[in-house]
Amino acid sequence: MQVVVTGMGLASALGSTVESSWGHLLKGATGLQIHQPFPELSPRPLGLVYDAPSSIAALLFPTIDAALQDTDLDSLTPGTGVVIGSSRGSQSQWESAIRAHHGRGSVENDLLRLYGDSPASMVAQKLRVTGPALSPRAACATGLWAIAQGADLIRTGQCSQVIVGAVEAPITPLTLAGFAKMGAMATTGAYPFDRHREGLALGEGAVALVLESEALAQRRNAEIYGEVLGFGCTADGYHRSAPDRDQKVAIASLQQSLQRSHLQPTDIDYIHAHGTATELNDQAEASLVQRIFPASVAVSSTKGATGHTLGASGAIGAAFSLLSLQQQIVPPCVGLRDPAFDLYLPRAATPMKLRAALCLSFGFGGQNTALTLAAI
């Protein structure tokens, strides 16, 4: 069964809508700015959607509403599924609750209130749908995993429609301090695949996509962004944060995605790279692409524009890739000035014949994910 995307909502540092985010991306703009939201921590380049760090609800609910409006559905069926992931979840609220109660007694009630609020359950309650409500959590692999799980719910006949996506509100003192302690944080900006890259810049964001069978979408004359093909997921079993240098397991995830899509490496026209602008990730990912794909494939990372949105990053990449397929244009690798690798890395929006795109995410714990999308 063919699974297609018929609705999209997106909020990123580039803009709070699909149109504003995509328009600014094509112009090569960046949403990263130097911020100091917490006085105890140093200023950093961050990707905020609004003027101050957001909660997952503030990012997620408008994005869900936008996706449903975009798909032009009169109503959702009671069995509609929801698969919304987040690697950090309500961490910002947890930290705020602990700070508010510091030295003033028990924090248990506030923490228990937050415990059951997964992004999927929040959306299911808001929309009053009764199908599966899944909230995957797999570090930076979360967003692609959510899309793949939603597509499988349709292919296996469990749902006729599924709302999928991811949300992340990671601009918190603990997250910032943790990445800074690791030495992974940029000080001026994010420059994926650049010779002078200095690390990641955290960003916040949310994506919601409406998935349904192609037959159903055609019966109701819905606009289709693209088709969800195959997915590959493997784990290195090697290190909590560093990629395995022999890359055999990472290669397997890409091969799985291609095989399940019935495609060859030469069929991929565009790769939306994970491209965190860290030393190890970009080096490993560039090597991976060079080993499998022809030199002509276009590669770009959009994290120089949105920041690294952790669990939401794969879903944001998938949304941008769907827009690329629909409009036949490759977005620029924002932030790239002096390429460090022999890859085709467009630095300006580039019109191109696009049949299929591959989205990549690589998460802590050695989680390797690949999702193949196709033009309709």
UniProtKB/TrEMBL annotation:
GO terms for biological process: fatty acid biosynthetic process. The keyword Iron does not apply. InterPro entries: Beta-ketoacyl_synthase, Ketoacyl_synth_C, Ketoacyl_synth_N, PKS_Beta-ketoAc_synthase_dom, Thiolase-like. Residues 1-375 form the Ketosynthase family 3 (KS3) domain. Keywords: Acyltransferase, Transferase. Its EC number is 2.3.1.179. It is an enzyme of class 2 (transferase). Gene3D superfamilies: 3.40.47.10. One of its GO terms (molecular function) is 3-oxoacyl-[acyl-carrier-protein] synthase activity. The keyword Mitochondrion does not apply. Coiled coil: none annotated. Belongs to the thiolase-like superfamily. Beta-ketoacyl-ACP synthases family. This is 3-oxoacyl-[acyl-carrier-protein] synthase 2.
